[in-house]
């Protein structure tokens, strides 16, 4: 009995030592958000909660964000390794600052930008916002493209009364009539629908993509230092992230629950609604044709056309192939 007990204790000690070794061997990756946690950010939380990152030997630390520009700065300065941000913002930063950051995967292959109005507002098309009170967030990348979308329908910023407000105030401003129109992302349809329902109202979105603003948007961007010094870790992370993205599509409720377990101030209903809203930006005719996460030269060029025009940048100043590295994305 004593010998058997000694063997059992030895086996337990070896197992414990193995666990410690495994934990120590995990590669830490700092993931940079470009905005507050929400359903559109679910894949990285699912990667952690469902063990997809752990399966690839990766432990993830999440850094909060307040806009694509800040996220790109944190990646460029090495605060974070990889994260989500607008590829258009990266293109502009490449030209103006030469940031050492590279896109490795598309997340939104369509832009999320939209106008939201109340159904009883009398606004039936984008042109009808002329003369209206329009509210937007100070930090959203939508502001960059707003002049182009207005120009596409024969308007300019002088034709609207534009104000900037905290993103959390946009929905209430629309419901109370403080704004006739708000600029927000299609990822917020469920949230605004719930707010409108509580006020006895209905909302109607006008996605800018349908109005002709076709481009890549949120993408997986990485620090060049991370890609150069730890390429195998980067490949494993991108593989795990893509697996998580596909899991979220097939399991919105479980994904929402996984996210709320890590961010308890959110609700499963709101996160699941945002996940469903987000799917149309990730899985659609573009992904059917090109593949999930793929960054195609033609659409990259269309994106740069819009970004350069919106920001008054020289279209010839950027070699688009210096913005992307497709070698880290696993085959579909």
Automatic annotation (TrEMBL):
<dbReference type="GO" id="GO:0009228">
    <property type="term" value="P:thiamine biosynthetic process"/>
</dbReference>
<dbReference type="InterPro" id="IPR015168">
    <property type="entry name" value="SsuA/THI5"/>
</dbReference>
<keyword id="KW-0732">Signal</keyword>
<dbReference type="Pfam" id="PF09084">
    <property type="entry name" value="NMT1"/>
</dbReference>
<feature type="domain" description="SsuA/THI5-like">
    <location>
        <begin position="42"/>
        <end position="254"/>
    </location>
</feature>
<protein>
    <submittedName>
        <fullName>NitT/TauT family transport system substrate-binding protein</fullName>
    </submittedName>
</protein>
<dbReference type="InterPro" id="IPR027939">
    <property type="entry name" value="NMT1/THI5"/>
</dbReference>
<feature type="signal peptide">
    <location>
        <begin position="1"/>
        <end position="25"/>
    </location>
</feature>
């Amino acid at each position: 009995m004593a010998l058997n007990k000694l063997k059992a204790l030895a086996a337990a000690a070896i197992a414990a030592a193995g666990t410690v070794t495994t934990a120590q061997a995990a590669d830490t990756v700092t993931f940079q958000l470009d905005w507050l946690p929400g359903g559109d950010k679910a894949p990285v939380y699912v990667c952690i909660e469902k063990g997809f990152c752990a399966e690839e030997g990766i432990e993830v630390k999440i850094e909060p964000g307040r806009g694509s520009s800040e996220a790109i700065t944190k990646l460029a300065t090495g605060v974070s390794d990889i994260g989500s941000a607008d590829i258009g913002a990266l293109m502009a930063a490449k030209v103006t600052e030469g940031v050492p950051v590279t896109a490795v995967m598309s997340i939104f292959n369509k832009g999320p930008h939209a106008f939201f109005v109340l159904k009883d507002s009398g606004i039936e098309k984008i042109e009808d916002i002329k003369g209206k009170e329009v509210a937007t967030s100070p930090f959203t990348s939508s502001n960059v493209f707003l002049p182009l979308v207005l120009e596409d329908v024969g308007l300019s910023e002088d034709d609207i009364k534009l104000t900037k407000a905290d993103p959390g105030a946009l929905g209430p401003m629309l419901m109370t009539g403080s704004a006739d129109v708000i600029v927000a992302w299609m990822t917020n349809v469920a949230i605004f629908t719930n707010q409108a329902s509580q006020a006895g109202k209905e909302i109607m979105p006008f996605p800018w993509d349908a109005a002709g603003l076709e481009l890549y948007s949120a993408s997986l961007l990485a620090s060049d230092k991370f890609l150069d010094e730890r390429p195998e870790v980067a490949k494993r992370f991108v593989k795990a992230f893509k697996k998580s993205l596909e899991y979220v599509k097939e399991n919105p409720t479980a994904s929402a629950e996984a996210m709320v377990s890590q961010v308890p101030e959110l609700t499963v209903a709101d996160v699941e609604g945002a996940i469903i809203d987000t799917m149309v930006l990730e899985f659609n005719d573009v992904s059917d044709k090109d593949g999930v996460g793929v960054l195609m030269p033609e659409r990259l060029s269309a994106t740069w056309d819009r970004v350069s025009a919106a920001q008054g940048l020289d279209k010839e100043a950027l070699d688009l192939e210096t913005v992307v590295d497709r070698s880290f994305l696993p085959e579909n």
